[in-house]
Amino acid sequence: MAPQEVARLAEVLDVLPDPRRRQGRRYRLGVLLSVCTLAVLGCASNLIAIARFTAGLRPETRSRLGLEASVPRACTLGRLPARIDGDALDQAVGAWLAAQLEPAGGLRALAVDGKSLRGSRTATRTAVHLLAAVVHGERTVIAQRQVDVKSNEITAFQPLLAPLQLVGTVVTFDALLTQTEHARFLVAEKNAHYIAVVKGNHPTLRAELKSLPWRDIPLLDKTRTAGHSRDEIRRLKAATVYSLTFPHAVQALQIVRRCRDIRTGKVTFERVYAVTSLSAEQATATQLAATVRGHWQVEALHHVRDVTFREDACRIHTGNAPRALAAIRNLAIALAHLVGWTNHTEATDHYRSHPEHALDLIAPTS
After folding, report:
1. Radius of gyration of the chain (CA)
2. Please, what are the averages of pLDDT over each run of 10 residues along the chain (366 residues)?
3. Largest pairwise CA distance in the chain
4. Is the pTM for the entire model greater than 0.85?
5. From the CB of residue 77, how many other CB atoms can be counted at a distance below 10 Å?
6. Number of H helices, E strands in the chain
7. Second label for 133, Cα 20 to 30 Å away, from 69, 73, 283, 293?
8. How far is CA 214 from the centre of its chain?
9. Local structure of 269: helix, strand or coil
């Protein structure tokens, strides 16, 4: 995607609800959020690093940002993430990113998964936990919601997906989110499909799936991948079953993973069961296998946030700052991915040295 195609991002940032008092404002909201995004693209992992990055910007880059006269102080940049409306920020950024993606050919897949920001934990406050919807294969978060401290991911699932257009989309999620009300919500209300992993939280359904005559069901898909010192083989079987005790489930899946550690030679096996509302006519076995495998790509996104952007090492815990910075990290990762970066360590190295190139992605109005 060319920089001019993403230039409207700054306008999105500029119209968010501004938590600051009108009196004494020196910088536009879009400019401050753009500065934060630029800094995170350059791998700034905390507010001090963001302030240091901003102070080191070249005069021509400052001018393009609209900072000719001065540079925001660290306290200015620090207060804003703590006070900004996290829901509004996530919704605006997610909607903008969704609009930038190329239309999916065939069935689009969306993974719903949660992540705790461990660094936000204090002696009196539990870690901020976020539930996100990630487009398979894109490393792009198009919706994110903070889970209430007195609740869990289950109650956040429907509010997360309710604003999204899900027609022609298959939603994947782990066993915790495999709930009957979620299946009804997706199929009956959102005209979407699901692939749901079944484990011990549904003992009756799991027993049904295990009792199917899998030995007599032919193998439909086999894939082999190697990487990260692992050699993995995945086998998938699918059976059409209309009597399952789960809403709208028409197929049962059995996925067997054989993983060999290349360094030690240790071999592990894992057998996973799942159900889906997709019929055999709506998705081939190869498509089902790719979608099941694609769900775990969300782990790659979490790995980038933790390792490259040092999210878990970030000790910021004031107000909405942990969530706001997580949203900006999601934005930075997606921006780099949209313009073709596949190695995010190399991307952050590049943008740290060339912030003007990162500014081409943000293109704020002055």
Report:
1. 22
2. 52 90 86 92 90 89 80 86 95 92 79 94 91 94 94 95 95 96 97 96 95 96 87 95 92 95 91 96 94 90 93 91 95 93 94 91 60
3. 75
4. yes
5. 22
6. 14, 9
7. 283
8. 34
9. strand
